[in-house]
Amino acid sequence: MAALAVVLGLVLLTITRAGYVYWIHRKSVRRVARPSSTSTCAVSVFLGSGGHTTEALQLVAGLDGSRYNIRAFIFSAGDSLSVQRASSLSGSATQLIEIPRARRVHQPLSTVPRTFFLSLFGTIRLVVPRAGQTPLGDILLMNGPGTCVVLCACVWIARFVGWPTPRMVYVESFARVTSLSLSGKILSPFVDRFIVQWPQLASRSRFAEHRGWLI
Amino acid sequence: MSPRSAFLTVGATAPFDALLSAVLADDALRALRDKGYTRLEVQCGKTQLPDLVQVSSAPWHTQRQGVDISLWDFKPSLSEDIKRADLVISHAGSGTIVDVLRLGKALIVVPNTALLHNHQEEVARALHERRHLISCSVPDVARAIRDLDTSSLIPFPAFDGSEFQTILDEEMGFI
């Protein structure tokens, strides 16, 4: 009886905490303190391979380097091409971090939960703060596909625990004109900014913000 | 008319036999020649045609309908070939589309309808509606070449990183 009460209490606490963390996210109560104009922000970039990598690298290539520095490029296991292409934009302090894939190409959906959790366990170290810092920095940029859902889940675990987390910015691919990608659909309520590049997509999700062509 | 050159790319990931056959067909080649495109460079990828020799990375040359044709399968980067061309005919991969348009080349794209969940067809259609390129189906390639009026195409805007920087500035509280 007492054990049941403890379990029930824990479940209630968890739900309350999760609900509170998500409420804060939606209310955007967690405002970032205005930085001084000379301070720099650390950016981490998920490279999703192929066209995703091309677009992500293009986005960060246009950033003012005195304000934003790339702390980490994160890529899925086995995607050596993304690493090669990122190296030209990497500074000496830029980390290249490999994380396990959430889903391989053509992997049946029924086995995705297992690989998703394996990927989660392999990625969670990225949100654990050391000396108040994480490899993800102040901003995490994502543009799909699947494996970045794992990154977002890890950031939410950190928010649940109360660790410092990056602001998450998701930019839907230029190739998406009339329908959102699966990772876009999944992540839109959970990222801090959900940006689409075509006006037709702005009405597809109440979280979407249309900002024109960014690439 | 000074001789001009066209570049056909079918993409590296999926074969696109229908596009290769359509562009190498007599009516499309004649349309190219009549428009002054007397050179045709072809990146054929995994696509193999029965009446062509097995193409390897060494280019293979032929002449048909007054067009000098050169074929090869893959290169690490197509940007040099795109720069050399006056007209690019391409599959509808969005990366290639942006690369070609940023280099200011006239572009005819042909979506590969054999691919499942082909959202890239959407980009082709949307950019066609904005007159940045011509999008057509495989059977219409010859006509698209014949009807091509490069002066009616609207240049694609150059890359401008300032809007994305503004989004991050808003998010980080700089503005």
What does it look like?
The complex is a heterodimer of chains A (215) and B (175). Chain A is of the alpha/beta class. Chain A has a domain at 40-166: 3-Layer(aba) Sandwich (Rossmann fold), CATH 3.40.50. Chain A has helices at residues 2-27, 50-61, 80-86, 112-123, 147-161, 182-187, and strands at residues 41-47, 68-76, 95-99, 139-142, 167-171, 193-196, 208-210. Chain A has a 7-stranded parallel β-sheet, sandwiched between helices. Chain A is globular, with a radius of gyration of 18 Å. Chain B has one domain (4-172): Rossmann fold (3-Layer(aba) Sandwich), CATH 3.40.50.2000. Helices cover 34% and strands 19% of the residues of chain B. The model of chain B has no long low-confidence stretch (mean pLDDT 89).
Topology:
The complex is a heterodimer of chains A (about 220) and B (about 180).
Chain A: H1 2-27, E1 41-47, H2 50-61, E2 68-76, H3 80-86, E3 95-99, H4 112-123, E4 139-142, H5 147-161, E5 167-171, H6 182-187, E6 193-196, E7 208-210
Parallel strand pairs in A: 1-2, 1-4, 2-3, 4-5, 5-6, 6-7
Helix pairs in contact in A: 4-5
Chain B: E1 4-9, H1 17-24, H2 26-34, E2 37-43, E3 60-64, E4 67-72, H3 79-84, E5 87-90, H4 94-102, E6 106-109, H5 120-129, E7 134-135, H6 141-147, H7 162-172
Parallel strand pairs in B: 1-2, 1-5, 2-4, 5-6, 6-7
Antiparallel strand pairs in B: 3-4
Helix pairs in contact in B: 2-6
